[in-house]
Every structure is written in C-alpha cells, then in structure tokens.
Amino acid sequence: MSPTEVVLQLLVTGLSNGLIIALIALGYTMVYGIIELINFAHGDLMMLGCFLALTLVGLCGGEAASPWLVIPLLLLAVPAFCAGLNWTVDRLAYHPLRAAPKLTALVSAIGVSFIFVNLGLFWGGLPMGVFAGGTQAAAQKDFPDLIGYRNLLGTQSGLQFTLKDVLVVAVTVPLMASLTWFVRRTRLGTAMRAVAQDPLAARLMGIDTDRVISATFLIGGALAGVASVVFVLANNSLSFWMGYRNGMDAFTAAVLGGIGNLPGAVLGGIVIGLVRATMEGVVPNGGVWSNAVVFGVLILVLAFRPTGLLGSRAREKV
Amino acid sequence: MTPRQIAALSCGGLVLLLPVMELLLPNGLKIGSLVPPIMIFAIIGLGLNIVVGFTGLLNLGSAAFMAIGAYAFSVVTCPVHPFQIGFWAGLVVATAVGALAGLVLGLPTLRLRGDYLAIVTLGFGEIVQDVLKNLDAITKGTQGLNPVPAPTLAGYAFTSANYAPWYYLLLALLGGTVWLCANLRRSRTGRTWVAVREDELAARACGIAVVRAKLLAFSLGAALCAAGGALWASLHGTSIEPGFYDFQLSVVVLCIVIVGGLGSIPGVLLGAVIMIGFNSIVLTKLTDLLARHGVSSTNVLASPGNWKYLVFGLALILMMRYRPAGLLPAREVRDELRRADGATPEAA
After folding, report:
1. What is the pLDDT of residues A122-145, one digit of tens each?
2. Degrees to nearest 5, angle at CA A292 with A286 and A294
3. What domains are defined for chain A?
4. Is residue B7 part of a domain?
5. Based on the structure, what is the number of domains in chain B?
6. Which residue of B has its CA nearest to A32?
7. CA-nearest residue of chain B to A116?
8. Could you tell me which of B211, B232, B214, B228 has the C-alpha nearest to residue B146?
C-alpha cells in the first residue's frame, strides 16, 4: 500500500470505530453532566444490548435472516430495551442515592456493572443455536455476518471500505446531529442543560429535575443500544466481558473531550478510534500496546489540561 | 470484666489458637489454610483505606500496586533473575518500589478532582497490566515468574503444605500494619488526611500542604498494597500472571474497604473476612458440595462460582442503599451521618 492509502485506511478504520465509541461516550457524558455520576455500568449495558441483538437475530433465523428486515428490527428493539433497562436501574439503584456523597452512587454503579456482567454470562448459556446451544456460556460468540465484507472500492483497491463503514456513518452521524438539535432546541433539552448547570436553580425555575434525569438515562441507554447494534453488525463478535473494554474506551473518550460536553465526547471517541487504528495498523507489533497508549494519552491530557480538550475551565464550586 | 472485654479476649484467643484448634475439626470442616489469603487482603485493604478512607481519594488501581509489588518481589528473588536476595530483603524492596510507584503516579495527577483521579488510577492499572504482559524478557509475559521463594525464619523454611507458620507470620505482619494505621490516623499526619478529605479548601486555608498530604497517603497506601502483592506471590510460589491483577481485583479490594466502613480499621478486617472468605471459602465449599452430590452439568447456572459477581454486585448496591457507612463504621463517619439525618442518636 502507498503511504496515502495507509493514511486513508487509518482514517476509515479509525473513524468507523471511533464513531461507535463516541455513541457510548455520549451516554456517559450526558449522565455525568447532569448528576456527576460515572455510570460504570454503561459499557455493560451496551454488552447486554449486543446479547439481545444476537438473540433476536437467532429468532429471525440466524445467518439466513434478511438484513433488510433484521437491521431495522434491531435498531428499534435493542435501543428500546437498553433505554428501559437504564431507566429502571436509575430508579432502583441511583435515584435513592441522589442526596448521598458522590462515592456512594459510584460504588452502586460498580455493583450494577457486576450484575450486568453476570447476567451476560448467564445469557450466553441460553439454549439457542446462535449461542452454540448454550453449553459454552463464557465463550466468545459469533454474530452472523449480515452485511458482508465486499469492498465498495472494488477488489483491485488496496483500501478497504465496506458497507459496514457506510452503515456506521449512516447510523451514527444523523443520530448525533439530532441529539445536538434536541439538546439545543427542544424544551426538554434546554431543561437538561439547565439542570446540568445548576440543579437547584433549575428546580427553582420550575423544572422537574427528576423527570429530566430520567429522560437523560433513557436517551443515554438508547444511544448505548444503537451503539451495540452497530458494533455487532460491524465486528461480528460479542462476549460477556466486552462491556468493560468498550466502556473504558468510551469513558476515556468522554473525559478526553471534557466530561459533560457532548461535542467533546464525539471528538474524544474519534481520537481514541484513530489512536487505536494507528497502533494496530501502522506501528509494528503496536496492537499489544494500544491500551497502554490510549490510557497514557488520557493521563497526559488530564495532567496538563485537567478538564479535557473541550471542557470549560470551571473552578470547583465551594 | 465487662462483657465487651470478655468478647475481645475470646476473639483474641480464637485468632491466636486457630491453627491448633483446627486439628480437632473433622477434615471436611478444615478451612484454616484458606485464612492466609484473607490476612494478605486485609493488609492490602488497610493500605487502600489510607487512600480512600482517611484521605478521601478514590483509587481504582490498587490491584496495579499489588502487581507491582508481586513482580518487584519476584524479579529480585526468583532464580530466573540473577538477584535472588531472599524473602525478607525482597519484601522490603517490593514495598519500596510500591511507594515509589505511588509517588510517580501521584505527582502529576493528585491535583485532579475526585472522578478524574479515579479514572487515572484505573487507566494506570490497565497500563501496568499491559507493561507486565509485554515485557516478556523480565516478566515472562503471561506465564508469570516462578518459582518465587517462601520465607525462611531462623533457619526454618516455610512450605505451602503447612499453613500454620504462614498464619502466624501474617498475623504478626497484619498486627504491625493495624498498629501503624491506627497510630498514623491519630497522628498529626492522620488528622491532616482527614482534614483534606472533609474539605480540601478549608484544609488549605488552615495551612495544610494539601498536595504533600495526598502524596504521602497515596505513596503509603501503594507501599502496603505492594507489600501485600509480594506476600501473595510468595504464598503462591509464583507472581501469578498480569491478567490476575485486573480491575475486578481492584474493585474487590475497594469492596473490602467499603463493606466494613470507609476509614474504619476494624471495618477493613471484617470486610476482608467477608469478601475473601465468601470467595475462597463459601464458593469453594459450595462447589465441592454440589460436585459430591453429583450435580455437575454444562448448565451455566449450576456452578456457584458463576453467581459470584451477581452476589457482589447486589451486596454493593444494597450496602450503598441501606448502610452506606459500612458494617463497622468509623465513629466520626457514623456521627456525621446521624447529624445529616437530623435524627437523635439511637440506642445501640
């Protein structure tokens, strides 16, 4: 491959992966912006979404299912499930702790994450064909290849650009645009920004903060659901431990961009996607170091610019 | 004697004589050999308690410091490398390396706010795992370093077959750690830590060097975690493998501190008994029991070990909901929670 092709390939792979990370990161950053909670279970919520997606595909006939039917079904059902689950968890585990010290809710979130991981393990034991009969519950699962690897640039091209990359962009970019519109323009979005800025003042202005927080969990969950569908369609594999890695990448992206900042989360996601693609595609034997590099970048950014790339330099409130 | 003193005395007697009394028990009930891991994790928990409990810095990377201790110890004692300085010098080196690692991570990052610090420590944990995994030449990658020597004391060599010497050695080390932590907590340094935890700005206004206090806590905590890691490696005869020291292990250590009660030394001891005891005694015995009754199937639900994280997770959520100060809370935390509730002190 020529140097130009190498760079272009990096951009394609990096952007494609980065956009998925960004979708998950948006869920982290929205929740943090509003109640200052690192929702540790968010990555594992996305993992459960992947398991639901595989279950649904299994019910629709697995490999033989028609993509035109299955993909829209997944894009409706999985986000709905993740949104509902995220909302329920908030009501049960986080809502009672709103007045408690921040550490309390964080520990509760770690607890939720552990439960999700365990549920993912059990889910893998489901006696279905797509789960290999459920005898190897802990094993990594294959997701049927509904889209295919056909190179859109022709078989001659050194550059890989497949329908999967198109799908990722076609789903994530409009979603992010409408999220921006929603937060900037709608009544509920304005209320969200108000609660994020100052919950007490927002309540004094007559905003039902509880409703706003619930809505945030619903939206964040739905985004994680979309991310899980796009992820399994693009990567064709899932496992019950995948939530941690994906959640960590997304959380790093959120912090990198400045936590609480929506464009920042997208930027952070893309940066991490590109860094990973560079490590795995260009640096010789770089794949084994890509985690270390991602976190190294994070630590450096935080050491020199503690509020992230796009975060505001707000002083901590006294 | 008051009932309290009698209880304390009988507890003390039980702890001192445990290996002896165990000889009287039938084979199926012998659990003494599972106690040393609990004691090692109590030492590690006490280290994290300095950081999270006393100083209020959320550290999600305690397993990384444990790994640093275990590997530093293994490198200087294992026959694969030329040093072979023996158990005691190795323990000192591991502790010192741990303290240094805490300092190195703390220097650039301790200015960060709570959540950011948490994520940096978490990232540090991932980096340490990757580095240990990839520096094959020194760490033997995923195989881990072994054999790691057991201690020798006045010519007596410890073995893995007989746990009683281990028990008393760890009891002495744990006692020393408890003594150190209790005294530190009452000292000027300890009061500085608590001041920083309660209100960093006010502490600074009172002339406390906040960064220095945090660094000291961080470094001491890391040193204790590293010492625990070294003991762990020596007990098992191997540095295990880098993947063992993962985020979940850090969370288990954090749970030890939280379940007992943040900042409470008896709380950490109880937390270690509950968390590690559940893991290595209850689950192991339950698995044995099921195997003996012929319940073995490929069904994922049939193995008790597979329910571990569900139980841990539920326990954490319920603790945070109904008993956030822990089972044996530190006195000032308990009082504060009561005041916050506006309730009168209830009769205990």
Report:
1. 999 888 888 887 778 888 988 988
2. 90
3. 3-124+163-304 (1.10.3470)
4. no
5. 1
6. B115
7. B310
8. B232
